[in-house]
Design goal:
Length: 106
């Protein structure tokens, strides 16, 4: 028979979530709303031109993937995404294509 240690923190609610889905469930903003808000914020920037953009929710923030055409005057993509409610961190996996405009996809 297994003995339970009474001093264990397991099950008391004081330990961090074990899975990303548990962390997402505890946030106040619906996951898909955060993705949509980040996408809208990025696409509304006049100096940022994406040929593709995928925004995925991760625990505590978002992951950005796609191709971005940018110039020297372009704003910082990560800081724009971090201004969205529900985003604490940004994992930026965007590929940068400087100096030329890429055709828009889909």
């Amino acid at each position: 028979m297994r003995r339970i240690n009474k001093e264990s923190r397991e099950g008391t609610g004081s330990s961090p979530p074990r899975f990303a889905s548990e962390a997402l469930a505890s946030s106040q903003v619906p996951p898909h709303q955060v993705e949509q808000d980040v996408r809208t914020a990025l696409l509304s920037q006049p100096n940022l031109h994406f040929s593709s953009l995928v925004v995925r929710r991760i625990a505590g923030g978002v992951c950005l993937q796609g191709i971005l055409q940018t110039d020297a005057e372009s704003p910082d993509v990560s800081s724009i995404a971090q201004r969205v409610a529900g985003v604490d961190c940004v994992l930026n996996h965007l590929l940068i294509a400087p100096g030329r405009r890429l055709p828009a996809k889909g």
